[in-house]
Every structure is written in C-alpha cells, then in structure tokens.
Amino acid sequence: MKKVFLIHGLEGSPNGGWRPWLMTELDLRDVYAAALVMPTPDQPIEHEWVDEIARHITEGDEIYLVGHSLGVTAILRYLETASVKIAGVVLVSGPCNATGNTKIDNFFIIPFNYATIRQRVEKVAIIHSDNDHLVPLEDAKMLEKELSGTLTVIHEGGHLGSHDGWTELPQALEALEQMGV
Questions:
Q1: Which residues contact residue 149 at a Cβ distance below 8 angstroms, ignoring those fewer than 6 apart?
Q2: Rounded mean pLDDT of 129-144?
Q3: What is the mean pLDDT of the chain?
Q4: Is 69 left (phi over 0), alpha (psi -120 to 50) or beta?
Q5: Which residues contact 15 (CB under 8 A, 6 or more apart)?
Q6: What is the DSSP string of 76-96?
Q7: Average pLDDT of 41-65?
Q8: Sheet with strand 2-7: strands edge to edge
Q9: pLDDT, position 85
Q10: Within the chain, where are the H helices?
C-alpha cells in the first residue's frame, strides 16, 4: 500500500500551510496520507522527532515522506537509521546546516551521513524558494548534490509556508506524481 506521511516544521502543526490541501489531493487519488503530530514543536528534540517518524513506518508498504522546514531535517535524520527502504522523499525549504536558531541546534550536532541516506531512499525531490528568509537556497543545492535529487526553485516563494501565504503547493504533488504516487 502507498502511504505518504507529512512532517511539519518548527512551531508547526499537521493542519498548517499546504498540508491539508496535499492530503486532500492524495485522498482524491486513493492514496493514504497522514500529517504527523510531531512532539514538542516549539522545543523540538531530534531523537523524539525521528522516533515519531519511525513509529509510523511499516515494512511492506510503499512509503513516501514529505517534510517542510525542520521536518526535512527530521526526515534526513530518520533516514540515517531507517531499517525500511523509503520509496521517495519531498524536501521543502529544509535546512541541512545549522541556522543559528538555538531551538533546533540539537538536529545539527553531527554532520549528515549522506551516503547512508542515499542508500535508504529511492527518489528525492527538493523544493525551495529563491528568497527563503530562514533557509538559504544553498542548503537546497547541497541536498540536490549530496542526494542526487531533483531541485525545483520557486521564484519569490519565501519559506513556502503559511506565513508566506502557501495554502497549496502543487510542486509537492507533482513531485510525488513523478515518483509514481
């Protein structure tokens, strides 16, 4: 069974931004989709977020992960330890380097093991804006290079979240469709 799990970012919620729209679109295609409730979104702890993702992953399913902002970072950390191969990930406005925000520093103590991450995921799509005020475009370019992913750059999209007016993100749906969802 195809399953898509959406992971929000710092101070986010499952029902914020474009996540409800994407879940509705996937439901119309008879694809199971769920936005996870990440623990302590205002004071996130890396291992708690990784554990929450892992709790929903089961062998035998075709799993896709879609993350926004810190949700991307949590997905990358999950993939470093995943025991199940993930069919695809869509990484939206995600940092892969420390941002200077002390609330999320614990996610960046150890550098990412990109070789391990590449082995645990089949397809990677990265979506980022050229004027993201929280995560530089260079992070997206690094993910594209390190994960052999496909990068889509949105002109003047900000951080691609609800604060920037994003209640729909057709690029995320298109990326999932290109992966076979």
A1: 91, 124, 125, 126, 143
A2: 98
A3: 97
A4: left
A5: 35
A6: HHHHHH-SS-EEEEEEES--S
A7: 96
A8: 32-36, 2-7, 62-68, 86-92, 121-129, 150-154
A9: 95
A10: 19-28, 46-56, 70-81, 114-119, 137-147, 170-179
Cα distance between residue 148 and residue 159, in whole Å = 22
Query: Which tokens go with 24?
Result: 């509705």
> What single DSSP character describes residue 2?
E
Indicate the pTM of the whole model. 0.97
Tokens of 37: 């409730």
CA atoms within 13 A on the CB side of 122: 12
- Annotation: CATH topology of 2-179: Rossmann fold (3.40.50)
Tally of CB atoms within 10 A around 35: 22
User: Tokens 């892969």 identify what position?
Assistant: 96
Give the dihedral sign, CA 154/156/157/159: positive
Q: Name the residue type at position 41.
A: P
